Structure of TetR/AcrR family transcriptional regulator:
Amino acid sequence: MAGGVVPGVVFGRGGSGAVNDSDQGAVRAARPKRADARRNEKTLLDAAAAVFVASGVDAPVRDIAAKAGVGVGTIYRHFPTRADLIIAVYRHQVEACAEAGPTLLETSATPYEALRRWIDLFVDFLVTKHGLAAVLQSDDAGFDALHSYFLDRLVPVCGRLLDAAAESGEIRPDLEAYGLMRGVGNLCIGADHDPRYDARRLVGLLVEGLRRPD
């Protein structure tokens, strides 16, 4: 998955954010692991994400195993249920998006350019989902904490990028990260199943509109 949730789910659900006993996937993801175990899990999650994007979250586990170059049993040892795997992929992609923010600030020519590039990643995160929305709206208790987790990790990153761009004088200073992310999310609704709708272009126009007039 170049991403992890769709706009209607991200901004439409509540939830306390508490991780209950049934949220085994989230607990496992938070537990410290050895470096080699983290690398192996990352390989599996990258493979699962790619297969989910191509074929949806109901894709056969054997396809994920083949993509990762491991046996099916290895997938099940790491992720006993499909829900565990979906939760882990989601968290993995959220973390990748969150970690990209500081890196882009360090490597981009200007803070505004860093913001623009991060929003591009965020759009990819939102529009490359196939079936994840329906899964996250299910009654599986393991998905309950994901909404708050998404916001807790990504809103501060977006806020830091906005603050940096505002301090550099490139954008107006009265913008809030949550509002911008919600606006981007709303523009992305439907983009995954309507080839005539170019969400990325519209989001690009939105981000361009943040700039101060010359």
Remarks:
- The radius of gyration is 18 Å.
- Residues 7-208 form a domain with the Tetracycline Repressor; domain 2 fold (CATH 1.10.357.10).
- The chain has a mean pLDDT of 81.
- The chain has eleven helices and no strands.
